[in-house]
Amino acid sequence: MSGTIRNFYVGGNTAHGFTSFMDSSLQGLDRIFILQGAPGTGKSELIRTIGDHMASTGYDIWLLHCASDNAGLDGMIVPQLKVGIIVGTAPYEIESLRLPETDLKYINLDEACDTNQLIIQKLEIENLNEQIAKAYQDAYDGYAEALRIHDEWETVYIANMDFQAADELTKEYIDTLYGERKLEKRSRVDHRFLGAATPKGAVDCVPNLTEGLKRFLIKGRPGSGKSTMLKKLAAVAIERGFDVEIYHCGFDPNSLDMIIVRDLEFAIFDSTAPHEYFPEFATDEIVDMYTRCIKPGTDEEHAEAFTHIKERYTVQMKQSTQYLAEVKSLQDELKKIYTQSIDFSRVDRLKDGIQQEISQIAVIG
């Protein structure tokens, strides 16, 4: 029987630049294999191959997806074995990871490259890296401007919000989700992204992450209190000792998009664009914050202003997506250079070595 695969992101292209929650997903691991090497040296393929093998042998795994490459992976974790494999190159700052009790093993895939070939291409590599850095910065600048526009949107709704009603609604859901239940243990808190801004636009893993759970779909408008409610619900989970998965907004990581408490088998999430969902299962429930918390007629009263704001916001977001697509195209060119210089038989041997070590951990465990 195959293991369960959970998909999410630990790094995101956001309005605050590249944001990483990698260290959160690595907590509690005994061993981490850190893959170093240039684009095209086979890091993502190695991770996926070993992940597929572990899942096929019955282990549940987490796949950490790459925000800058829709087909790429940034890591794989086998929670039961307390082992993981992650990409250890920029933009992740592996040196800053605080994992004093974890055995870190570095695997340098650049060792499989023909350095003579790369020396010949040195200027081209430097040129591509400079273009990639500029395209990333252009994307981040665009997202930052989009966030400023989004703040204009929120300001109108905040001015028409009934904060007492929002507090009452949150209290209702604290009672609904938790009741009087609590656990006499310390909560584990995992910070993640449920999706990301990618070269192909916004993507998310909501169906995979919420599978088999009772789902509460929050509907509302920008500034109608969705993230604030989620933060309060997460705080209750932590206070009462429940493990909680906290999913940050891939656009503004200071906001939350979803929390999951698997001990209580529920997920509650912001179900508005770009991750808009509607009830699919009998147990799905709508949480309508617009109806409960916003002054009636607000949409109609400010319709013209909202249309203008939405148009500006959409243009800015599309432009940043185009810059990420440019990054992907440039990275593909960079990968070709390294791929032509690499001895993949050596990469396969490194992969087999990692797989053998993980298999030994499984036997001992």
TrEMBL record:
InterPro entries: P-loop_NTPase. This is ATPase. It comes from Paenibacillus glacialis.
